[in-house]
Structure prediction request, 1308 residues.
Amino acid sequence: MGVAPTDLANAIRALSMDGVEAANSGHPGMPMGMADVATVLFTKYLKFDPADPKWPDRDRFVLSAGHGSMLIYALLYLTGYEQPTIDDIRQFRQLGSHCAGHPENFELPGVECTTGPLGQGLAMAVGMAIAERHLNAVFDAALVDHRTWVVAGDGCLMEGINHEAVGLAGHLGLGRLNVLWDDNRITIDGAVSLSSSEDIPARYRASGWHVAECDGHDFVDIDRALAEAAADPRPSLVRCRTIIGKGAPNKQGTSKTHGSALGKDEVAAARANLGWHAAPFEIPEDIRKAWLDFGKRGARDHAAWQDRLATHSDRAEFERRIAGDVDLEDAAGWAFSNWDRVPVSVATRKSSEFALEGLTAAMPELVGGSADLTGSNFTKTPVLSNMSAEDYAGRYINYGIREFGMAAAMNGMALHGGVIPFGGTFLVFADYARPAIRLSAIQQARVIYVMTHDSIGVGEDGPTHQPIEHVMSLRMIPNLDVYRPCDAVETAECWALAVAKKDGPSLLALSRQNLQQVRTGGDMLSAKGGYRLRAAIAPRQVVLLATGSEVEIAIAVASALEAQGIGADVVSMPCWSRFEAQDSAYRADVIPLDMLRVSIEAGVTLGWERYTGENGLRIGIDSFGASGPIKALYEHFGLTTDAITPQIVEKLKK
Amino acid sequence: MGVAPTDLANAIRALSMDGVEAANSGHPGMPMGMADVATVLFTKYLKFDPADPKWPDRDRFVLSAGHGSMLIYALLYLTGYEQPTIDDIRQFRQLGSHCAGHPENFELPGVECTTGPLGQGLAMAVGMAIAERHLNAVFDAALVDHRTWVVAGDGCLMEGINHEAVGLAGHLGLGRLNVLWDDNRITIDGAVSLSSSEDIPARYRASGWHVAECDGHDFVDIDRALAEAAADPRPSLVRCRTIIGKGAPNKQGTSKTHGSALGKDEVAAARANLGWHAAPFEIPEDIRKAWLDFGKRGARDHAAWQDRLATHSDRAEFERRIAGDVDLEDAAGWAFSNWDRVPVSVATRKSSEFALEGLTAAMPELVGGSADLTGSNFTKTPVLSNMSAEDYAGRYINYGIREFGMAAAMNGMALHGGVIPFGGTFLVFADYARPAIRLSAIQQARVIYVMTHDSIGVGEDGPTHQPIEHVMSLRMIPNLDVYRPCDAVETAECWALAVAKKDGPSLLALSRQNLQQVRTGGDMLSAKGGYRLRAAIAPRQVVLLATGSEVEIAIAVASALEAQGIGADVVSMPCWSRFEAQDSAYRADVIPLDMLRVSIEAGVTLGWERYTGENGLRIGIDSFGASGPIKALYEHFGLTTDAITPQIVEKLKK
Prediction:
């Protein structure tokens, strides 16, 4: 090849400058600084085939420093992916462009995950590396044998989640995970030394990582460091000493190149400095061809892999796992398969365990775990053994006290494919994981959150451990199905729905305390999101709306009202997003507008006006909880039949 | 003294066992394991005076492992605090008891902060240590010269926030911060080695900490280690090797002692094992007296300090700072003092800077910062210089890319007193800080969050950076005042209200993009939370409700409606919690029920039904955002006069 690596890298720099300049918005500093490192990675190390971005055994490349999105757009274009086209790149950051401000997995094959919220890309990569090792152990190296490469900046490393991700990766000995740290010593506010004095390599080593270092602008040195990282059996951090905005003669090495266009003059100066004479968005033919040739490098590996798959004894199961289709009826059957063992009065976290027993036995793709609350979340079933560095075939991950890290890792596992992750913690700690839950939803990642202890039913642990605003505020995250089942039947139904959903996350909010079973089975009513659980006997004057542990209270209130001759429907609403997806006739039948509607839920009332109307009653808790036994708390907060019934009677009189 | 330290420590163990046993709920393992270490700390090192729990120059003691709350309750009782009484301890974990499941700062003087959500206590202690060094530099060692001591467990150290807290403390060289790590090698799920392989001391050293080690059950060794920690100029981690549940012969050293009562038999066995023959909740007279004597140890220091204060030249200012009273009218005057420099069309993040310039100049207690977005948040005014290990008098903290750590540190600073912290990040990253924002609210901590880039107005950075559900979901956190001002006048008003509020946090959601000024001043209308900004001219048929950047859209829509002869009020609602605190007559006047009401806000519509009723219109965004220029996004999501007006006209026809 006659093209020098510098020219290959300068193609990335030129496209990055041009894209940002055209948009007059974006982040040229990172792509220009990491262009040399990325060139070595993509031309020599990364296993990929632009002709099939979904090849299951490809290496995963994660741009954790997602603001540097022009780096991945340039690389995908140069190596010959169908998308982005050069026109897509010209439309960088414009509405509707595949080249969004931050890389989005749903916009471009080849973008493995959506990054931008700092720290999470690297933490998702940990999940991808877990999935790889797990599938390698379950199948074999003939089918699964790839690496996960990450480009991360100082921001990714400073965020708290980095500690969780690094700890988990080190503990699990994920040797095929290699993080290329863009060590440019610059943050938005200025020098990294303004806010940090950390010896980062020492910290990584303390968690069992291998650390290599290189001059990020010396191709030979980069090559040596990547080879070292690839060879080491531990996860590797490669410290790449770089100059941010490298090539822009007057701005490089400063935060001025980080987050805005360089400006016409500086772009011209950079072109001169780099010896890059092509017009904007144009790549000289020889360089273009050289890059495309590198893009074809993986085709042979890919073909060999396809040959191995074609004759592999586990081919059907492997393809099933990668496809990820789960039939809802099958899932329901599995979720109910332990039904004869479910007691009448049982916490939904416990009925969740019964459902999970059937599901995990039938679905080897389910990989569970908990953020150190296994015995409280009931997430570990008999078929799940611990995953460890010694046994990646294990299907249960002891995530440790790392809620955010767990959630991000699950995102990575789901995006990798071949596994369906679920993980538990207390619902109140959904706050710790919230940035990753949001990314599950944005990325349409199939992750199942098992959040137990979902209300003041937590009891004595008090307000810091009692969700109040959580259920409602989670309902506000687009694309997230929030389930709050009321008994064992609904719990099994919700599990089946969650498991069968391919294109997004689900979250189950489950009770600590025992709940009465209110249904015996029948149609899968939870699929409607909300349904009439009990019809009024006397002429209907009120509709009671409730979820989870408050459904049995609603039933008792209905009985008390009926005893006074007041007919009351009870509507259970385990999943609002599913209910809203029903047609208006169904919704109007279940929740008629011409009638008093009363919501009962042990959380904030804000939001319930959607269903009660402003003239309805909203029974809930609009302050923080308190420490005390459950019964005392429900009385204190007025969530009892005796406290609620008279309010309804009074309201009806008006 | 004739009482052996073992007996002092066993008093803690006995009370811990008895409290948990009576409640049949709680965590005996940690207090029993750390009883020896705590005994050395409280009898020899901690500077405190039970007669005055609010003595400003006391050492701060933070039980970061808050589940071990019986440790602090026992210590406060034994050293002679007025509360808790022994009856309070008997009522441990009962509704209304001062001895809640987790320690609550609003329940008990002597409990410096509310802990339980793991990792946050230590991170708040960093803030306390910052406040101490800052006030020491601003005043002098005669008035401010104390330490911050923390008891933390493996959970606190494994959480991501620990990385942020440790990084910040190391960078700022907070030598008076000493963390006592309860190294018992046990988590809830079992051995720490199930989930972690980290060399924790090495990690702390990598961030500039000093690490000492001791046998946590050898009083001489503990004493040596604490002395070493106190003497070292760096922040110190003291690794205390302990046995969880130490004293319970059959359960100690296992996770069985962590989170539930030991049981009658094991308590009896522990009493025998410890040689503790007193009845439950009884402390032998000699031990009781010895502990009370230790409790009086600080009185002399306290008296000497009061003498120094009495004659100190800065006494008045110091007392003013500690009292923390800020007059709202004064605050408003300062917030508007740069008024003549405010342009007509300006982003609220920029008008926030103008308000802050006046406030920071007038109020030396304001200590600002940003999580590496200073130039975007506009949080740094000319009077604020950087705080550093070399200059603690600086009033601006470069928090680094540590949103959660910043929020937790601000909680600690606010709880310490003498400073009012404010800190900035992008609103979308409120998710990263959410667990600490919740704790600000629970703890009634005076923290001001400056959250800019508050909608799709973010523009090209796209959905990962565009808040959609954030404003509404923050409104759901009890005790948190969420402000979304619409122009420069409201921004200054909201700043004044936030600064003057003593008993809780405030959050300002501010625009990236320029907004028209819609008011010229006058009464402080934002204090009402919502108010009529424009009255209808034609006969009123509709009331438009909006916040922040959508108020100018509402005004334009009103004009378009008036042009068609449809009278439309415009109501600006910068702060829902303040509006709800108004009387019902005021609320009904501003938002009449007998009229079409339309909300316009660039975020989720769920929640707006509270004010629009179910028959109103809710204009908002119920999906994730997109990457593109601002104008294109507002058009895409239908947030324009042209898109909204016809919907209202149509609705009025029905």
In short: Residues 579 and 587 of chain B are 7 Å apart (CA to CA). Chain B touches chain A through 107 residues (CB under 8 Å). DSSP finds 26 helices and 20 strands in chain B.
